[in-house]
Design goal:
There is one protein chain. Strand 2 and strand 3 form a beta hairpin. The protein has 494 residues and is α+β, with helices and mostly antiparallel strands. Helices cover 34% and strands 25% of the residues. The mean pLDDT is 92. The protein starts with 6 loop residues before the first helix and ends in an 18-residue tail after the last helix. Helix 9 crosses helix 17. The chain is built from 17 helices and 18 strands.
Length: 494
């Protein structure tokens, strides 16, 4: 709590003893709320004044006072709950002097309960004729101004409780995200996938190329990583005989913060035995159509300054073809590392010291020159082996059977035909260790436990990871990941 109070804050606190004098706890007790305002409006909003008078329907609602218009012995208020708002009319000769005196202590932001019958005012507005007024919780701070209040993105993210309180759009995004996650679960469950939970703490770094957070377990006197992916543990489930498995959970990567990245984020990773990349395409396209049909009830989304139609069949293109069309460089040709370096310099593609083969540069060409131009929905397929240590090779061993899914210049999902050959996987891990020695701090560890699992036999499988934060950004048409996270990671206030 702030020690230095404004005049308005002082005035609100000065009312606390007055509540106690009236025998009312200013910070409330249990209240039996029977109606939600959205349902009340849907069921009774279109009825005439005469119909409401005949019905004499009683409601018991609770929420926050967003407006008070006092007129002596009667007043109008506006009450807001989770999904709606309604006007109330309170009069001293209806609720009684004691209740009206209690109401006179009310400030904007107070949480109250209203009981009464529905009516229409002369202007035709649905209104509660209040017969019982209950104070529930005192608000000790002034509410943000309605039209010029909480609009700054930084401030809204830091004080999300206020943002949700006064900005309907923010609350709607939060509730829509919940519906999207539930829709993903429903879709997966209907296809026979089983949801599991795996460890967040890991003794090894694996499953993705990313910088980890490191923590220390005192009892074991050992460092652990916060997981950067759920991949390896879920594949162990396949070895153990759970043929269709998924996990929705938090992932942690010790990397930058920007419009599309937060250090902790949510993904679904899913693996299907006896499948490959084609099955993952079907799964993802089906999921997105399910979400747009049943959750969002729309199919064209304006995002990243583009209209993206998710109802049409998703196109598939090879990465090498996209790079060739953009730059004239054909990475299907045998290009030496030295030649690739010169091509990168010519096309102003940045290089990393740890790179030692052409595949890294091919990926950089795509990231820098192609990815920002993609509209989608598009599957980009066939990636260089160097950047895909857990993926089956294609007929050309320089490439692997992998896709990433793009819309509006942004990647949303990553899918593989999974390696199930323990000898191949061990070689990939060895290459990762060599990359780490060259300075690549995102390279994977050698996971001997996972290699042992593969030696017991893992069925051929398709696997996919989908960023839930990002798909929510697209489906709610938000440009910044903070808008779809209730409490994003923020820099310290200056």
């Amino acid at each position: 709590m702030d020690e230095k109070l404004t005049d308005q804050e002082e005035a609100r606190r000065a009312k606390l003893p007055k509540y106690e004098e009236l025998g009312v706890d200013p910070f409330g007790t249990r209240f039996e709320k029977k109606d939600c305002l959205k349902t009340v409006r849907e069921e009774y909003g279109e009825k005439s004044a005469e119909e409401l008078a005949e019905l004499h329907h009683n409601v018991v609602v609770a929420g926050r006072l967003m407006a008070i218009r006092r007129m002596g012995k009667a007043s109008f208020v506006r009450l807001k709950d989770e999904e709606g708002s309604i006007q109330g009319w309170i009069a001293k000769d209806v609720v009684g002097e004691a209740s009206y005196n209690l109401f006179k202590l009310a400030d904007l932001g107070d949480i109250v309960g209203l009981e009464g019958t529905l009516m229409k005012t002369r202007t035709g507005e649905l209104t509660i004729h209040i017969e019982k007024y209950t104070h529930i919780t005192k608000c000790l701070h002034p509410m943000p101004e309605k039209f010029h209040g909480l609009t700054d993105t930084e401030e809204r993210s830091r004080r999300r409780f206020l943002d949700l309180m006064v900005n309907d759009s923010s609350r709607e995004i939060a509730l829509t995200r919940s519906k999207i996650v539930r829709g993903i679960r429903d879709y997966c469950d209907a296809l026979g996938f089983h949801e599991v939970e795996t460890s967040i703490l890991s003794p090894l770094l694996g499953g993705a190329a990313a910088k980890p957070f490191i923590t220390h377990h005192n009892a074991l006197d050992k460092d652990f990583y916060l997981r950067i992916a759920t991949e390896l543990n879920l594949k162990k489930c396949l070895v153990g005989g759970i043929e269709r498995v998924y996990e929705i959970g938090r992932i942690f990567r010790n990397e930058g913060i920007d419009a599309k990245h937060n250090p902790e984020f949510t993904t679904i990773e899913l693996y299907q035995s006896y499948a490959d990349l084609s099955d993952m395409k079907k799964w993802l396209e089906g999921l997105i159509h399910y979400l747009t049909d049943h959750i969002l009830h729309k199919h064209v989304f304006h995002w990243n300054n583009q209209d993206i139609d998710l109802s049409k069949p998703f196109e598939s293109r090879d990465m090498a073809d996209l790079i060739y069309e953009k730059t004239g460089v054909d990475f299907r040709e045998q290009i030496s590392f030295e030649e690739a370096v010169e091509l990168a310099k010519k096309h102003h593609v940045p290089l990393e010291k740890s790179w030692n083969s052409t595949g890294y540069i091919m990926q950089a060409f795509f990231d820098e020159l192609v990815e920002p131009t993609l509209v989608g929905p598009l599957f980009v397929c066939t990636y260089p082996i160097e950047v895909s240590p857990l993926t089956k090779k294609t007929a050309d061993p320089r490439f692997v059977d992998r896709f990433e899914f793009f819309c509006g210049g942004t990647e949303f999902a990553n899918a593989y035909s999974e390696i199930n050959n323990p000898f191949d996987q061990k070689e990939r891990f060895i290459e990762q260790l060599k990359a780490r020695e060259r300075g690549d701090d995102e390279a994977n560890d050698m996971d001997l436990n996972f290699l042992e699992a593969l030696e017991y036999g893992m069925p051929p499988a398709g696997g996919i990871g989908l960023g839930i934060d990002r798909i929510t950004m697209l489906l709610t048409e938000q440009a910044n990941v903070r808008e779809v996270l209730l409490f994003p990671t923020m820099k310290d206030e200056k």
